[in-house]
Amino acid sequence: MNQKQRIILITGASRGLGAETAKQFAAQGDAVCVNYFQSQEKAEQVVSEIREQGGEAFAFRADVTSRQETEAMIQAIVDRYGRLDVIVNNALPSYQFDPSAPYTSIETVTWDHFQHQIDGILKGALNVIQSALPVMKQQDVSHIINISTNLVYNPVVTYYDYTTAKAGLIGLTRSLATELGQYGIRVNLLAGGLLRTTDASSSTTEEVFGYVASATPLREVVTVEQFASAIRLFASDLSNSMTGQSISVDGGLTMP
Question: Which listed residue, 47, 100, 130, 196, has the most CB atoms within 10 A of its CB?
Fold first, then answer.
């Protein structure tokens, strides 16, 4: 994937998948905006690690549910680099993946549960994209990658609020791809499953990892590093003929 330096924005990049993706983009020569909301220390650590390896990155605090804050973030990127080539909408509102939680039953889930996830996931992505459109429409090729979950294809645990909001990203992705293709903007979605290892899966037992691995055609649980590599693929020139796609990165566990 040899290419000129591009400017990358990754929301929710202070840890987990977002942090790994930032490091991989920087390692291939891109400049990265590491967005965070609450985890300033972790975001600055990601930037420090990137710079220690000779990469280019800076951290920017913005609540993606605020249009004013996303516009300020995009302006900071444009002021610094003059362009924005890739957006990875990875930010996620606080969530506990607890099968016994009230939002896993239609009898106990509330609209407040739904609203919290819809605001953080859908509204957040919409704010970032709308804020970035003026600069991205002026470029020949750019990419927007939305991060979803394979629970939208196979809800093995009925996280109603989270899964519904993530499913909404599919409709958003396809509509954006239809409208923005004329400007050279490719919009795709990658859906992940259980990853080895993030904060969300840190308490997952080896027994569960083994069960998931045995159910996949590849007989393995996807790692954070592997998922980040898939994001880089869909942000590269190798995917320039693809838009509006919704693809699972879960070892073949789901095949939408």
Answer: 47
Please give the positions annotated as active site.
162
Burial class of residue 163 in the structure, from the number of CB atoms within 10 Å of its CB (0-12 exposed, 13-18 middle, 19+ buried):
buried
Domain count, the chain: 1
Asked whether residue 97 carries a pLDDT value surpassing 90, the answer given is no
211 lies in some domain: no
Backbone angles phi, psi at 146, to 5 degrees: -100, 135
Tokens 């909001």 correspond to what residue?
165
The residue range of the domain holding 233 is: 7-194+223-249
- Per the prediction, the chain carries an average pLDDT of 94
Answer whether residue 202 is part of any domain.
Answer: no
Choose among 228, 141, 220, 137: nearest CA to 190.
Answer: 228
Spell out the alpha helix ranges (H) of the chain.
16-27, 40-52, 67-81, 111-118, 124-136, 160-180, 206-215, 224-234
**What CATH number has the domain bearing residue 174?**
3.40.50.720
Q: Is residue 13 part of a domain?
A: yes
Q: Quick one: DSSP state of residue 194?
A: S
Task: Tell me the HSE value of 198 on the side-chain side, using a 13 A CA sphere.
Answer: 25
Q: Is residue 199 part of a domain?
A: no
Output the pLDDT for position 95.
86
As a whole number of angstroms, the distance between CA 103 and CA 243 comes to: 33
Structure tokens at 68: 């004013």
Worst-scoring range by mean pLDDT, 118-132, 191-205, 237-251?
191-205
> E strand or H helix at 58, and its extent?
strand 56-61
